[in-house]
């Protein structure tokens, strides 16, 4: 596999990871209207991927993924500040990602 193919496959895996993260958020928290994703970052030292999300413009939640091929609630690390995170956990997990707006952070070309 050449570098272009590897990059394309990685982008596809990251797009799937983004959808799974968005699905986790809408299924587990009430009143999610939008999710803005920053750019995924790879940590060479740990071999894991990290992404920050801004939910409803004022709730920051970060995710750590150790394996892009195995993404589930059990394998994702989730962090947020208890003092500033205002979303409430919910019991009903029927909402899907089609009900929210998903935004991506614009990349800086410099």
Q: Tell me the span between the first and last alpha carbons.
A: 29 Å
Strand content: 25-35%
Element order, helices and strands?
Answer: HEEEEEE
| Structural shape | globular
Annotation, overall tally of beta strands: 6
Considering DSSP H and I runs of 4 or more, what fraction of the residues is helical?
A: 10-25%
Q: Please identify the oligomeric state.
A: single chain
Tally of separate helices: 1
Q: Summarize the biggest pleated sheet.
A: 6 strands, mixed
Rg (C-alpha, Å)? 14 Å
Structural class category: alpha+beta
pLDDT < 50 runs, ≥5 residues: none
Return the average pLDDT rounded to an integer: 87
Question: Mind explaining what this structure looks like?
Answer:
By secondary structure, the chain is an alpha+beta fold. Helices cover 24% and strands 27% of the residues. It contains 1 helix and 6 strands; from the N terminus they run H-E-E-E-E-E-E. The protein has one helix spanning 3-28, and strands spanning 34-37, 41-43, 48-55, 59-65, 76-79, 101-104. Strands 1, 2, 3, 4, 5 and 6 form a 6-stranded mixed sheet that branches. The longest helix has 26 residues, at 3-28. The relative contact order is 0.22.
């Amino acid at each position: 596999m050449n570098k272009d193919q590897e990059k394309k496959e990685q982008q596809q895996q990251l797009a799937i990871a983004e959808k799974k993260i968005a699905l986790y958020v809408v299924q587990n928290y009430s009143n999610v209207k939008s999710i803005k994703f920053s750019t995924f970052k790879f940590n060479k030292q740990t071999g894991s991927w990290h992404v920050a999300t801004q939910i409803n413009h004022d709730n920051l939640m970060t995710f750590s993924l150790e394996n892009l091929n195995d993404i589930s609630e059990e394998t994702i690390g989730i962090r947020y500040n208890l003092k500033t995170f205002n979303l409430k956990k919910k019991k009903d997990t029927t909402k899907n990602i089609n009900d929210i707006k998903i935004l991506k952070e614009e990349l800086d070309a410099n």
